[in-house]
Design brief:
Blueprint: E1 2-6, E2 9-12, H1 16-25, E3 31-34, H2 43-46, E4 51-52, H3 61-71, H4 78-98, E5 104-105, E6 108-109, E7 111-112, E8 122-123, H5 130-144, E9 148-150, E10 154-161, E11 164-172, E12 175-180, E13 183-186, H6 207-215, E14 219-220, E15 225-232, H7 244-248, E16 252-254, H8 274-288, E17 293-296, H9 302-308, H10 310-318, E18 327-337, E19 340-342, E20 354-356, E21 361-362, H11 375-388, H12 416-428, H13 435-452, H14 460-481, H15 499-502, E22 507-508
This protein binds flavin-adenine dinucleotide.
Length: 519
């Protein structure tokens, strides 16, 4: 059964990027948010550390700009970084007006320092519940503004013709919705679920990249995945994050013998950029055959830790972990995707009427390594810019086209494939990569695609599997191509930066010769 709907704008995803874009677009017409779980379920809700923004009198946009560029390993897109640092404070003021209460001391905001920031500039709310505070306020706002939304509804495909987007196809309880619109905004979050060890929630399966790429959109920087140095090294799924702000407040990393090993690795020690700290931990774990290192919170003081990080404290208590003077077992986990659907400075993708914002998008802002706590700010700034594009559609109308839907195959698969993908990505396209492993991945994903490309879209698990295959293939191919080490992409067979050949972004679409076979 199929329902045909018409909305001026479709927004795919209800995290910070999707909702912020929807609020703006509502000024220019009707908006429908499609989201595959509950409204609040996504990375945004789980963000702990906070939002980096120039708000202190000691800080300047040029400092935030320089720190972002330095962390980004030489390939940040400067105009995008400027946009974020300059417009960020306005976006934060809006959030405060709408009801987000960032933590204060007296009349001043409390600010934390995180890795590779030169000074304290990270605002937080509810201690370490920043994302939940922001998401709750945004969800209330769409309800108050009567913006339509459909929960438990996953998008499987964009409706396109001749490189123009006309809408999207979605499913809820096996029912198919064909939704025509003037423009589509993809805000479907990251890809962490491609990895066995990740901090990302179950919805982060890269779907937006998958269906936008198949529709012909350019994708960029797919080799750059940020591994967070300190996820809780216990059997929770996804991995529970121990925010970088914990190190920002003074916690230090110790090895199994109680030695502070980051002192020998980087002058900024535990607050070096994430790629450096994650790789140092990974190398230490491998060379010493240990499953984790330890985060010693005693420099913060136990009472302050409990007050400053109530969510983390509660979790540690639930797991019977944190007693006075405790050390927390930590190890790296896939956390943030710097790559994604290529967008320009206004959030436009390479297909007409297609926009993207948030973690699914890639303006090149984060370069090869995102500066801590820049992603919530980036999402707000670029989602607002996407929303502003509504004014260009005011005098246009929604067009319906005839289109051919996907083939329905009777192929069946064993669900153990999903686990196999995660293990293979972890092993061959994880913190340390090399040619032979990446080539194995490409063969593996090509085989899977030929077997399962025709799986019907009326089952969400099929769409997720297809998305994981395409994302895994693209990540592996981009990582194989980049024969150097830069930011979060480290090749053991090419361990050095090569600015002469590789100070560039890789960008491909399905029309490129080598990738045409996917179509
Ligand atoms: C544990 C954790 C802590 C973090 N802490 C911080 C921090 O302190 N500061 C910071 O700046 N960043 C932090 N990040 C990163 C940051 O939270 C994310 O980059 C940001 O929230 C992404 O927002 P988003 O709107 O792009 O995606 P999300 O918030 O992930 O939302 C994606 C949405 O898309 C929907 N969706 C996905 N696929 C489909 C589909 N096929 N159809 C329909 N809907 C779909 C999902 O259901 C969800 O609603 C953290 C991330 C994690 C995981």
């Amino acid at each position: 059964m199929t329902d045909i709907l018409k909305y001026d704008y479709i927004v795919i995803g209800s995290g910070i990027a999707g909702i912020r874009a929807a609020i703006e677009l509502k000024k220019y017409g009707s908006v429908l948010i499609l989201t595959k779980s509950k409204l609040y379920e996504g990375s945004t809700f789980h963000a702990q550390g906070g939002v980096a923004v120039v708000i202190s009198s000691l800080d300047k946009p040029k400092f935030h700009f320089a720190d972002t560029i330095n962390a980004g390993a030489g390939i940040c897109q400067p105009d995008a970084v400027w946009r974020m640092v300059e417009e960020g404070p306005k976006r934060i003021e809006e959030l405060i007006d709408w009801g987000v209460s960032f933590d204060t001391k007296g009349k001043q905001f409390k600010l934390t320092k995180e890795g590779a920031h030169r000074l304290s500039r990270v605002l937080h709310a509810g201690g370490d519940a920043t994302g939940a505070n922001i998401e709750n306020v945004l969800v209330n706002k769409i309800k108050n503004e009567n913006i339509d939304y459909m929960e438990e509804t996953y998008v499987s495909k964009l409706i396109t013709q001749d490189n123009e987007v006309y809408g999207a196809i979605a499913y809820r309880d096996k029912k198919r919705f064909v939704i025509f619109s003037k423009a589509v905004v993809v805000a479907s979050g990251g890809i962490g679920q491609l990895y066995d060890v990740t901090t990302n929630p179950p919805v982060s399966t890269g779907d937006g990249i998958y269906f936008s790429f198949l529709a012909g959109a350019n994708v960029m920087d797919m080799e750059f995945i940020q591994f967070h140095p300190t996820s809780l090294a216990m059997d929770t799924y996804p991995k529970f994050l121990i925010s970088e702000a914990v190190r920002g407040e003074g916690a230090i990393l110790l090895d199994e013998n109680g030695n502070r090993f980051m002192e020998d690795i980087h002058p900024l020690k535990e607050l070096a950029s994430r790629d450096i700290v994650a790789r140092a931990i990974f190398n230490h774990m491998n060379s010493h055959h240990v499953k984790n290192v330890w985060l010693d919170i005693s420099p913060i003081g136990f009472d302050k830790f409990e007050k400053r990080f109530p969510t983390i404290y509660k979790k540690l208590m639930e797991l019977n972990l944190c007693l006075k003077g405790c050390k927390i077992p930590v190890s790296p986990a896939a956390h943030y995707f710097m790559g994604g659907i290529n967008i320009d400075i206004k959030g436009r993708a390479s297909l007409k009427n297609l926009f993207a914002a948030g973690e699914v998008s890639c303006s090149g802002l984060h370069g090869g390594n995102r500066l801590a706590s820049n992603s919530l700010l980036e999402s707000l700034v670029f989602a607002k810019l996407v929303g502003d594009s509504g004014k260009f559609y005011e005098n246009t109308s929604i067009r319906e086209i005839n289109f051919i839907d996907e083939p329905i195959s009777s192929a069946v698969y064993d669900e153990s494939i999903v686990k196999e993908i995660k293990v293979i990505m972890e092993r061959n396209a994880g913190i340390i990569r090399k040619e032979s492993d990446l080539k194995k991945n490409i063969v593996f994903f090509k085989d899977l695609w030929s077997s399962y490309r025709g799986l019907s879209d009326d089952n969400e698990k099929n769409v997720i599997l297809k998305s994981m295959i395409i994302n895994g293939l693209l990540i592996s191919q981009f990582a194989l191509n980049r024969k150097e080490s830069r930011g979060a992409h480290f090749r053991s067979d090419f361990p050095f930066l090569n600015d002469i050949k590789w100070k560039i972004h890789q960008k491909y679409s399905i029309y490129d010769e080598d990738l045409k076979w996917i179509k």
